[in-house]
Amino acid sequence: MAERPGSIDETLALLESAGYVADRPLATILFLALKLGRPLLLEGEAGVGKTEIAKVLSTTLGRRLIRLQCYEGLDIAAAVYEWNYAGQMMAIRLAEAGGAVHRDTLEGELFSERYLVKRPLLQALEADAAGAPVLLIDELDRTDEAFEAFLLEVLSDSQVTIPELGTVRAEHPPIVVITSNRTREIHDALKRRCLYHWVDYPDARRELAILKSRVPDASGRLSKEIVGFVQAIRKEDLFKAPGVAETLDWASALVELDAVALDPALVSDTLGVLLKYQDDIQRMQGSRAKEMLDRVLSELRVPA
Hints:
By secondary structure, this protein is α/β, with parallel strands linked by helices. Helices cover 50% and strands 12% of the residues. It has helices spanning 8-17, 24-36, 50-61, 76-79, 85-98, 103-110, 120-123, 145-157, 188-191, 204-214, 220-233, 244-256, 264-269, 271-274, 278-284, 287-300, and strands spanning 40-43, 65-69, 81-83, 116-118, 134-138, 159-162, 166-169, 175-180, 195-198.
């Protein structure tokens, strides 16, 4: 288990040690979240690296990563706990077959930890020899407000209440990272309990550093052309602009094709790696891709 960073610079270095190239505002809010023991709410477009932050923290700090993937209809049974009903029914049948059993005794046994199925939020409150785990609550905006309301107890007091057992409280609160793609607004009551940061698309310099870190096999020329083209395409009127994840996927695909530089045919043939909607691909194929690529190459060749 590694120590938590003691400064913003140490936080930057911690992220970079795992290949995550962050800007200083992100490192600052992450350092404060770790220092103050507050949940961190990260919002931004899909593919900009929000989820990756929790994974990096888990790796660099040597903590267990517990991930709650949110979805519409997520409830307490899937997120916190449920009872092993099959096991309970079997215990009742065996008790009945074995003779007289006091009802209160049987009920106490049925609603004990033996029959408790622990889900991610409850697991995150358990003691761990490696230290408090990293709890990733991913894409919270996919759930409803009722589930958000339930989360308030977990985020405020690092505890959950199980009616049959009582309150389960963490000895050491987990490191909580919450992500949202902002398909709907998160309620103010939950936001007040978190530190907040909007994770934006990186500028060209930082995206190039990310690409060099994650896809080192790409040549310097190819990397610059990829970043230049992606930066340009994000300014287009697209249904979904490519995130950093798509930039890395595209670079990896081009390396597999032994590409050393971009050309219009190669760009058009591989747009399906970079863009995920057919309307966007059709808009960028052919002459439009060539026009954009020519402009990018021209800009890259201008002396500094």
